[in-house]
Every structure is written in C-alpha cells, then in structure tokens.
Amino acid sequence: MTSSDQLLLFNRQTSVHQILGGGLFADVILWRQKNVTLAILILTLVSWVLFERSDYTFLSYVSNVLLLLLLILFLWAKSAQILNRPTPPIPHLQLSEENTNEAAALIRDQINMLLSVSHDIALGKDPKKFAKVSAYLVLISIIGSLTDFRTLCYTTVFLVLTVPVAYERYEKHVDSILLKGNMKLKRLYIRFNEECINKVRKWILDMNKLS
C-alpha cells in the first residue's frame, strides 16, 4: 500500500464513484449527468418554495397532481375511442415476485441488524455503539428542533448532490483532516475509558473497605 493510499479514510482503495454503486445513481450524485442533477436541484428548490410559500401541503399537492393526471388520461382514452385514435401509451407495470422477495429480504436484514445492535446496547455489551447511537440521536434531536421535516428533506437532497462531488474533488485533503481528528477522538476515548475504569475500581475498593 502506498503512502497516498494510507491517507484515504478507512484505508479504502475504491473511488467515491465505486462506493456509490458506479451506475446512474453515482453519475447523478457526482454531477457526471449534469442535466439530470441540475434538473433535480431546480425541481427540489421549486418544490420547497411552493410548499413553504403557499397553503399547499405535500399530501394535497400529490393528490391534486394525480387527480389531474388521471383526468387527462381518462379524457385522452375516451376521445381516442370516439375518434378511433391510439390510446395513451401507458406501460403495464407490475412487481415481480422476485423483486418483492429481494426487497422484503433487504428490509428484513436491515431490521434484524437494527434489533441486534439495540439488543447489544441494551445489555451494555458494546459501549462504542452506545456512544455512537447516543451521539446520532442527540444530533437528530438538535436538527429536529431547528427545522421541520419538509425543509430537512430538501436540505438532505441538496447536501447529497453537493457534498459527495466536493469530497471527490478534495478527497485527499479531507481524508487527511478526518484521519487526524479520528486519531485524537480515539485517544480521548481511551483516556475517558481508563478514567471511568479507575473510578469504578476505586469505588469497589472503598465499598470493600466499608464492608
């Protein structure tokens, strides 16, 4: 492994594009399909302005759009029958049993993993996971107190379409900073853990002396 590889976070040797799947999804996030990415950003901004500045809610907006779409298709189909013209080119969509089973298996695995982590945390088997989960919950609580769910969704889309491409451009610099910060956090955790253990040992010794 070269010195440049060691500067990569988690000692990985794959690119950001490969981590994101290497397909169309990764191309959109990393702005390799600029028209699609820009369209998503503009649509997200327009939707946010629409919902924030008008009395529309997401549910009423979706319902009205679907109602308008169904009305257009219905009138199109009826007029096509009367005028002997082609019907609307609507594809016949249907979920296959294989896709359904794969999705169900994926959801099941994720839920089982979540339950397993929760079980370990509840029994005190993994202090590191407990600290991480607690930090995430505190962060979510802070974010939830600062904004509403709708704005959070739009902000998340914006970050997904900007942070990865910025990280890919300045990858080595960011990884170097994060690795240094991670090492400092590990040293602080080890020191904190040792202090807690020493305090517990001292408390046990004091209790034994009193007994």
TrEMBL record:
Q: Quote the cellular component terms of the Gene Ontology held in the record.
A: endoplasmic reticulum membrane
Q: Does the keyword Cell wall biogenesis/degradation apply?
A: no
The compartments listed are: Endoplasmic reticulum membrane
Give the PANTHER family listed for this entry: RETICULON, RETICULON-LIKE PROTEIN B12
The entry's keywords: Endoplasmic reticulum, Membrane, Transmembrane, Transmembrane helix
**Which intervals hold domain Reticulon?**
25-184
Q: Which residues cross the membrane?
A: 35-51, 57-77
Does Membrane count among this protein's keywords? Answer: yes
Query: Main location per UniProt?
Result: endoplasmic reticulum
Q: Which GO terms describe its biological process?
A: response to bacterium
| Membrane topology per record | Multi-pass membrane protein
Q: Highest taxon of the source?
A: Eukaryota
Name of the protein in question? Reticulon-like protein
Q: Which InterPro entries match?
A: Reticulon (IPR003388), Reticulon-like (IPR045064)
